[in-house]
Amino acid sequence: MRMKNKLLLVLASAFILSACGNEEDIAGVEDDPIVEGFEEVIAHFPYTYPLIGVETEEQLDRRVIGVTINNHPAARPQSGIGDADLVYEVLSEGEITRLVALFHSELPERVGPVRSSRPYHIDLVNGYNGMLVTHGWSPEAERLLNGGRADFLNGLHYDGTLFQRSNERKAPHNSYITFDNILQGLDSRGYELIGSVPNLSFYENEDVPLEGAEAKEIEVNYLNRNYVQYVFDDETGLYERFNDEEQTIDYDTEEPIRIANLLIVETEHRILDNEGRRAIDLISGGDAILFQDGIASTVKWENRNGQIMAVENGELIRLKPGQTWINIVPTSPGIEASVTY
What we know:
Helix content is 13%, strand content 36%. It is built from 6 helices and 27 strands. It is globular. Pfam families: DUF3048 (PF11258), DUF3048_C (PF17479).
């Protein structure tokens, strides 16, 4: 978890010792029971990043940017996802999932491979007053975006200019864009880059009072073809992600993805056409499992202002500061059949 904006001030007894004039004074200080090694003091900053719950000295007024990221085996590992505040994982066609990564607190140098969007991707980004970056679209997503449903930047219009193809991978798994180019492209389209961001609810510290069953190894089965695993690290207090037993890392930094909150939700998926495109219900709510600190809690999910939230008895459940992933699985076969831990 990225805590670089929290400042740890250490007041050591060595500073006290340096003020003493001779060895006798030093010995006296060392024997003084009042001086007991180190005292940790955390300096609190006036602002908090709204989607990860980490304190910061800067107040961000930029809007969220959501990017549809390819999760085909030929596209892994991806670039930039380690800096996302929140990542949705949801089926596209077939059994392969696509990632919708929301960026706000950190902007990586580049992100990708970028892939085409679906109507439910638009809804997920709109829930955070975000702007969508995509490379391609389904016919319905094209209609919605051209009709003004969301502010967007499409690689179909900027292939080879703002979007660049990597020689290391084959199309359509090789489209990348830098965040400098994202901001340039959105600005050139006349969109307002400054705007409000909803504040998620977090625990005040890293001690999570979640109750439930132990869950240190989790597997999410997407239609018996695509397997996603999460393994809890006792040292970091975070989950690490694997896809088909290959660890999820950021391609550019080679750092593993570390997740503070994992929410798995069940909802209706409906096949729309011969291409296997889907309609996915993001409104009705339903069964969910929330994983924090190696504990699984059976909860419900609700759509509140376009955001998928974990609730219990109608009350929002707070998140642990850090990155959140939300895996969306179909009601058939259902969450009980799709998730093991």
